[in-house]
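Lab meeting, item 3. Inverse folding demo.
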């Protein structure tokens, strides 16, 4: 709500009813004092929180406000020490420069640096297929994952270029438009729905920027076909809009092929649970079941399924993307190596061992294999050595310590390889198990592999977090608040997303 809501008479009366003793401050107090102070406090808390983040993923995108002012949004995602997936909006920066990759690239680097985040700690950035975002990620040499939602949306749009589908979709849009601008037809539709005992659903309008909206439009027209036909046929001005049986056959073929895909897009768009490790299994499921030809399918349905699957295979056939998804599947206790190509399993295992060892070099030895003391421990040891030695009674365990050598004779690489093999041989987690809960329980059993899980399982499968910032910004920069300054927009979006 706008800040001047606190000066609304009705709101002030409500506060008086809740607590007559409370004196509600005016608009100026909130805009000049309260909100800036809250923003400063939350920013400081988040900055301290980010200091402990070892690895993170991000999403970023450009959007324009209602007043056509351009903004660059940036969100980051990481797994905290309690194995909870965190999603934070870092900024919604005013971006009046040209929206080229060459300009966006340093802008994203500066945004990370302003929060004390190193590029080396970024595992991956998830973006849509915009050429400027692709170029920016390439110039920064960042690993990039293409948004699954955008890819699936593009595949469905490709299907729409078929002449038969294009005509049927056009008829569908005209039907929806006829009901959208006529309250009489909406009234008659409700009457017809009762007559045919149909669900009292409104028709759905396609939105080019909303994933799956076309499919929802088609599905709703099929559901309400009888009622729609009766209402349109009753008016000679709209009689020509009644879908023919050929149009309905095409729409039903499209619906049969694409309807199951919507569930996967919605499921992979979450921010509070692991999604990236699902991509490999989902693509496998598409290939073997969802988009597999059935004997009951029409020829058009078969063609659509093949077209979508070929498009997805082409886009996810990149070696870099395939290896990234393989690593994410490997550290998911539900999937491990099940969806990795057999000839790539050893390569992925070797990469996992190498990355674990590099982590140890970057972060220092882990508690499980540390052999060097910290400066404080060395100082305490020297201080203890200066004191007179106190004779202690030997324990039975100390005798075994002398008899059993502490060095197992294994190199550190062999130790890491052994831990990885033990993890892979452990029973798979149930498909309904939340992988982060599993890792919280088994972190001490597989301490090195768990670090790799924290690194890869934080990656979002879609760029939905950035898309949600657009929605938040749209709710803030309304036609009644079109004069908000960019820094105020950034502050309000930050608080709306991070409180």
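The presenter then showed the designed sequence:
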């Amino acid at each position: 709500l706008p800040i001047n809501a606190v000066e609304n008479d009705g709101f002030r009366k409500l506060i008086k009813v809740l607590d007559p003793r409370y004196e509600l401050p005016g608009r100026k107090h909130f805009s000049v004092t309260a909100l800036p102070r809250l923003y400063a406090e939350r920013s400081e808390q988040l900055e301290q929180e980010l200091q402990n983040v070892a690895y993170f993923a991000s999403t970023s995108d450009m959007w324009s406000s209602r007043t056509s002012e351009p903004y660059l949004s940036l969100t980051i995602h990481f797994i905290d020490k309690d194995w909870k997936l965190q999603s934070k909006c870092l900024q919604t920066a005013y971006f009046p420069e040209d929206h080229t990759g060459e300009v966006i690239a340093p802008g994203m680097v500066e945004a990370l640096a302003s929060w004390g985040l190193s590029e080396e700690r970024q595992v991956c950035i998830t973006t849509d297929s915009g050429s400027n975002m692709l170029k920016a990620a390439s110039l920064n040499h960042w690993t990039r994952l293409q948004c699954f939602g955008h890819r699936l949306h593009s595949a469905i749009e490709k299907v729409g270029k078929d002449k038969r589908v294009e005509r049927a979709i056009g008829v569908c849009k005209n039907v929806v438009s006829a009901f959208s601008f006529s309250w009489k037809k909406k009234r008659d539709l409700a009457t017809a729905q009762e007559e045919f005992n149909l669900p009292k659903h409104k028709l759905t309008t396609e939105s080019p920027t909303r994933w799956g909206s076309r499919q929802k439009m088609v599905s709703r027209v099929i559901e309400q076909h009888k009622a729609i036909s009766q209402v349109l046929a009753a008016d000679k001005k709209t009689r020509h809009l009644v879908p023919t049986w050929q149009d309905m056959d095409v729409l039903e073929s499209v619906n049969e092929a694409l309807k199951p895909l919507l569930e996967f897009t919605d499921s992979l768009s979450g921010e509070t649970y692991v999604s990236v490790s699902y991509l490999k299994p989902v693509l496998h499921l598409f290939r073997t079941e969802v988009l597999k030809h059935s004997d009951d399918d029409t020829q058009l349905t078969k063609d659509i399924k093949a077209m979508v699957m070929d498009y997805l295979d082409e886009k996810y056939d990149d070696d870099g993307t395939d290896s990234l998804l393989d690593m994410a599947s490997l550290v998911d206790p539900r999937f491990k190596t099940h969806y990795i190509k057999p000839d790539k399993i050893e390569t992925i295992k070797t990469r996992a061992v190498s990355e674990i060892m590099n982590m140890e070099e970057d972060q220092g030895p882990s508690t499980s294999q540390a052999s060097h003391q910290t400066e404080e421990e060395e100082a305490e040891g020297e201080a203890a050595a200066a004191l007179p030695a106190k004779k202690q009674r030997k324990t039975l365990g100390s005798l075994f310590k002398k008899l059993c050598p502490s060095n197992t004779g294994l190199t550190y690489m062999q130790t890491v390889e052994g831990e990885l093999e033990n993890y892979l041989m452990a029973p798979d987690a149930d498909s309904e198990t939340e992988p982060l809960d599993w890792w919280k329980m088994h972190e001490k059993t597989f301490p090195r592999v768990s670090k790799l899980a924290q690194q890869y399982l934080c990656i979002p499968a879609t760029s939905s977090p950035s898309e949600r910032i657009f929605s938040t910004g749209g709710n803030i920069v309304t036609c009644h608040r079109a004069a908000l300054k960019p820094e105020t927009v950034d502050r309000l979006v930050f608080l709306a997303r991070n409180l």
